[in-house]
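Predict the assembly for these four chains.
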Amino acid sequence: MFSVLSVVINSMSYLTDAPIDSQELVKRVMRPSDGACVVFEGVVRDHHEGKKVESIFYDAYRPMAEKEIQRIIDDINIRFPQVAAAVVHRLGKLKVGEASIVIACASPHRGEAFEVCRAIIDRFKQTVPIWKKERGPGGEEWVGWQK
Amino acid sequence: MFSVLSVVINSMSYLTDAPIDSQELVKRVMRPSDGACVVFEGVVRDHHEGKKVESIFYDAYRPMAEKEIQRIIDDINIRFPQVAAAVVHRLGKLKVGEASIVIACASPHRGEAFEVCRAIIDRFKQTVPIWKKERGPGGEEWVGWQK
Amino acid sequence: MRVRLLYFAVLRDITGKSEEVIELPEGTRAAEIWNRLRGKHDQLAGYERPPMTAINETYVSPDQPLRDGDEVAFIPPVAGG
Amino acid sequence: MRVRLLYFAVLRDITGKSEEVIELPEGTRAAEIWNRLRGKHDQLAGYERPPMTAINETYVSPDQPLRDGDEVAFIPPVAGG
């Protein structure tokens, strides 16, 4: 009746619990016909809305997040068939300076690589069911939730 | 009367004859307050205007190129004081798939990181005295020079 | 019918659980489940409209009637990236 | 006066040298040097206006009068990046 456990069938997952290797992502997308690669790294920073941040805990609705990211990639593939894009988001506890997301976009020309990289992160932040709990000197808080 | 040899005084040069380490560039720009890093890699691709490309030789007016790049960085620092940017361009013979330029831009927020990274590469291509000679099955040619 | 409710992030903290299976009349809507949650948890009282709603891992209107076996998740404001 | 001419990329290939020091009347302009080069090298004949011009590592108008000791470079279309 209920799916026992949602397993990502693809060997390739968009989510990881380990540090992200951005070089590996670049290698994954680059083809001999590509002249440009644009990489976006989202990184835990030491402040948010005036408050000090020490670490962030990322949580996700994993199977749905995988599907939503796949949907973003599929849309991009239709709109920009010449661009190859890869995305990985890290979950769990991250310290300041660690990358939470890396997006790599390769293309024959730089225009689309920049456009797609920006489009992916903008849309990612709107729909992918991932949440973050910021921890600082004042305690913990889920970002975006008004108490 | 003539400057004997123009030496880059800074330990940091914008030009290199060795493969570029983009991870090192990212480390150089990231500060604890940065939440975003955008990296652009220009890569030798296997074609140009319908012709097959096997390798590219990059030549430069080195001391002037260093100054022009410095000028670009200085302008960016004035217009976007919150962004930290690093640039390295490689010279000499590069094979398909090798990076000729890497630009890393870190910022508290992603908007300016994208904007600055794009602005740097766009301006770089207009004013920095670097040239490329493409080699393919049909011979060699300096790009941009109409015979 | 029975549906599985999943709780994430702030909702997991507030409800104290990550999921539960509940018995409901046929055709119940996610919005009605949200109202039950609001009745149970003071921290949700101010939220008249549910946050984004997912049924079986897809965003849907909270007014869509549920079916037996559905997996329902209320999605608090996302903050990935 | 004497100025140093630097040749890069396609201009180095055409002239067969990377630099030379030439003797010129006071006040000569870079544009006039360009015309001399056009006279010497058939491949440049079609280029009435010089490409971008740098004096002492800075872009300037090719009509700027040169001074003793200047380093002059004609900059073919750049293609870095």
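Chains D and C do not touch (no CB pair under 8 Å). Residues 2 and 36 of chain D are 15 Å apart (CA to CA).
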